[in-house]
Amino acid sequence: MKSGCLPLRSRLKYWVGGAFDRAPAPQVTDNTFFLWEPCSHSHAEVVPGYAHYLLELGYDVSVLLTPQRLDEGLFERFAHPRLTLNRMPQAAIVRHFARHGLGRARGMLISTARKIGFNRSYISEYGLFGPRAPGQKLLLVEHDVRVPVEAGVTDHNVISLRPIEYRGLHSRGVNPHWFGKVALRSKSAERVNFIVVGALRARSRNIQGLLAAVAALHAAGLHGFHIVFVGEGNLRDVPAELRDYFTVAGRVSFSELYAQMERADFLLSLLDPHNPAHEFYGTTGSSGNFQLVYGFAKPALVARKFAEPHRLTPQTSLIYERNEDLAEAMRAALTMSGEDYGRMQAALAELAAGIRRESLATLRTMIAEG
Question: At 291, which CATH number?
C-alpha cells in the first residue's frame, strides 16, 4: 500500500503508439464491467471491494491489474466464477482500449481517476475507449475531490470513498471495504496488539505523539502491548528503552497485510489534527486505513477530527481530542474487557454493513442513470 502515484497521462501518448504487448486481451461480453486500477503503486486495496459490488449487481467483472499487484495476494481471499483477473502491464491495458474501446462491455470503473486526468480530455485525446454506446458507463473514482473541482467538474457523477461536499461539488460515496473472507477474533488476553499501516516517519504519521504516549504507558508500568508498523521506516529515533514495543515490518504483500490485520486488536491511525498535511483526510479525501477498519472490524484509535467524517463514534472506536490524549486512549485499549471489545467490534461490523448497503445502492443508481 505504498502512497503516491505519479500521473499516467504523461505516458499515454507513448504507450498508445507503441508495439502491442503479448499479454492476453481481456474477454468481454455484453454483461462485462471492466475494473481498472491505473496506479501501479497504491490504491489497489480498493479494487476487491469495487469488484465485489459489481458482482453483487450481477455483472461479469473483468479486473485489469499489473502482475506485480496480483502476485502480492490482493485477491487471495476472494474468488468468484464471474470474476476474471487480467494480468496486464499498464501499457498493454492502455493499448488494448485505445484499439478496441469498451467493445460490448456494460461499462468501465476506473478506481483512481486522477491517474489519467479527471476532466476526461486525456481519455478523448488518446481515444482510450472510443465512442461509447448508449448506456455504456464510464465511472471514475476520485481519492481527492479537489482534483475534479480544479478541473471544473462539480456534477453529481463524481465517485469518492465517502460522500463529500466541497465548493459546489457533491460527490457520491461508494466505499469499498471488502477483502474476502476475514477471521474475526477476540481481544488478545496477554498482549494487546496495535497496528499502524503506514511509514514510521514524522511527516506521514504523528510519530512524536505516539512515542510520548508509549513513554507514558511504560513509565506507568503498563507493558502488555506491542505496535507493528506495516510500512517503511526504522527505529533509529525511538528511545532504546521503548524499542521492544515496536516492530517495523516494512512494505509487505497484501497477503501479509491481511494476516497482520487479523492479528491486530486495534488500528492506530496516528493522523494529526494539528498537521496541515493531514487536513486532507478530514476534508476532501480519505485514507486506506479506514477501509481496513471497516473491512476487518478493527476499532481505531483516532482523533475526533478524522473520526467524525468517517462515521466512527465512541461505540465503534476509541476517539480522542488532542494528540496529548493518545496515551489515555491507548490505556483504555489495554484495560478494555473482552466483552466491551466484542460489543465495539460488533458495532463496527454493523456500521460497515450499513456503509456497504448505501454504497451498493449508490453504484446501482449511477450505472442505471443515462
Answer: 3.40.50.2000
